[in-house]
Design a protein that fits this description.
Blueprint lengths: L13 E7 L2 E7 L14 H12 L5 H9 L9 E4 L2 E7 L6 E6 L7
Antiparallel strand pairs: 1-2, 1-5, 3-4, 4-5
Helix pairs in contact: 1-2
Organism: Calidifontibacter indicus
Protein name: 4'-phosphopantetheinyl transferase superfamily protein
Length: about 110
């Protein structure tokens, strides 16, 4: 399966795409990438990644958020700047699932 997803005009601060076999999960949200999401206990970046993994059929939300809280979901991958977004490819270490995460810093008026 080859799929390309564009989120450049979505105006979300944090975005993620995850692929597992032939399933693709994408999540875009207006969450600051570095701040904790209230009542969840993970950063915006981790939350959108968790949502994308759930949509790809890799985990259920409770499991993936618990893994994210304990930093057991993966390790840092390649990081680069693309068109004002910070993009990070993050292997999960589980069943060859990869979740790419991108974010931009919130600015006044965005």
């Amino acid at each position: 399966m080859s799929v390309s997803v564009s989120w450049a005009h979505a105006r979300g601060f944090s975005v993620a795409a995850a692929c597992r076999g032939d399933k693709l999960g994408v999540d875009i949200d207006l969450l600051d990438p570095d701040l904790l999401v209230p009542d969840v206990g993970v950063t915006g970046r981790a939350f959108v990644r968790a949502e994308a993994l759930v949509k790809a059929g890799a985990f259920d939300l409770d499991v993936v958020l618990e893994l994210a809280r304990h930093r057991e979901l993966g390790w840092p991958g390649d990081r680069r700047d693309v068109y004002g977004l910070v993009v990070e490819d993050v292997p999960t270490g589980f069943d060859r699932v990869i979740a790419a995460v991108a974010w931009r810093r919130p600015t006044v008026g965005s």
